[in-house]
Amino acid sequence: xxxxxxxxxxxxxxxxxxxxxxxxxxxxxxLKTWSRRSTIIPDMVxxxxxxxxxxxxxxxxxxxxxxxxxxxxxxxxxTFRGHSRxxxxxxxxxxxxxxxxxxxxxxxxxxxxxxx
Length: 116
Prior knowledge:
Oligomer: single chain
Distance between the termini: 61 Å
Strand order of the largest sheet: 1-2-3
Order of helices and strands: HEEEH
C-alpha cells in the first residue's frame, strides 16, 4: 500500500540531514546508509549513495528517473547464478512446454508446411 500523500515521502531523518548539509556546501561525496526503505527525493539527485545490501555497500548514483522509488530497489540483496544443470538438461531433452505441448506456443494458423 502506498504512503499517504499528506504525509509525504519517508526519508530517514539522519540521511535527509546529511543530504541537505552536502547540498548547502556543494559537496559530492559517497554517503553510506543502511536505510533501504527511504524514498528518493529530488534533493538527492546527483549524489552517490552507498546502500547496504546485507553484505556490502552498493554505490548508487541518483538520477532524475529514480525520484519516488526506494533506495533498496537499486541494491539487490540476492545474486542470481543461473539455473541448475538438471533444469537445462531436461529442457533440452524435450520436456513438456515445447511447441505443440499443451500451454506451449500454438502453430500458426493458415501456414502449411510441405516437404519435397
